[in-house]
Write a structure and sequence with these properties.
The chain has about 200 residues and is an all-alpha fold. The protein is built from twelve helices and no strands. Helix 2 crosses helix 5, helix 6 packs antiparallel against helix 7 and helix 8 runs antiparallel to helix 9. The relative contact order is 0.13.
């Protein structure tokens, strides 16, 4: 999660708050798994977030700092509601100890989570490339999980083949760490920061 916050620092300053709001929401959803002892309790928390998101689109924002940050992100990027709700649904899988049945299911899961964040961050930055975001998000997600290395490299290559609008580049920056995670499963924050800086300077993820 820290990767995305670090990458957002390369975005225009007036976009920082909105990007932080989106990424803070993602962290809030991820951490549900570690906060609950039973899946049904996690499902209740997720339902609260579903209702909270629906309320934001109905112009009613909960008195909750993460919800207020998300509302700012939604307003800035004119974000559609469906990807946010789908991200929560995908994360329900995390509440159980079931293995991913196959790589197609795993890529679908990453598409609704990792890729969706790149897409929504791109919208906040005023640009959009859904196909490239889908590929980059899957590549980065596989690398973070340190599974299916060949598939991760393949998806990264496919994503790099797309032309990314300059304005949207900070949304894609986390994907620049894909090869680092594949080569070093637990790289230091310093190495990640250097790689992000270099990718931002080269405008190549």
């Amino acid at each position: 999660a820290k990767d995305r916050f670090l990458a957002s620092l390369y975005a225009p300053e007036d976009k920082h708050v909105a990007l932080f709001g989106l990424y803070a929401f993602n962290i809030e959803i991820i951490r549900v798994r570690s906060l609950v002892s039973e899946p049904h309790i996690g499902l209740i928390r997720y339902q609260w977030w579903r209702d909270t998101i629906a309320a934001i689109y109905g112009s009613k924002t909960a008195d909750h700092p993460v919800a207020q940050g998300l509302a700012r992100a939604i307003e800035t990027g004119n974000l559609p509601q469906a990807p946010l709700q789908n991200l929560i649904t995908a994360r329900e899988f995390d509440l159980y100890d079931d293995p991913m049945p196959d790589i197609q299911t795993l890529e679908g899961y990453l598409g609704e989570t990792s890729s969706a964040l790149i897409q929504m961050a791109s919208l906040i930055l005023g640009e959009h490339n859904a196909e490239a975001a889908g590929l980059a998000g899957v590549a980065y997600g596989l690398a973070r999980m340190n599974v299916h290395e060949a598939q991760a490299r393949k998806r990264l290559g496919q994503a790099r083949a797309h032309k990314i609008p300059k304005a949207a580049f900070p949304a894609f920056l986390p994907a620049s760490l894909t090869e680092l995670y594949l080569d070093h499963p637990q790289p230091s924050q310093f190495r990640r920061q250097v790689r992000l800086w270099w990718a931002a300077r080269q405008e190549r993820f």
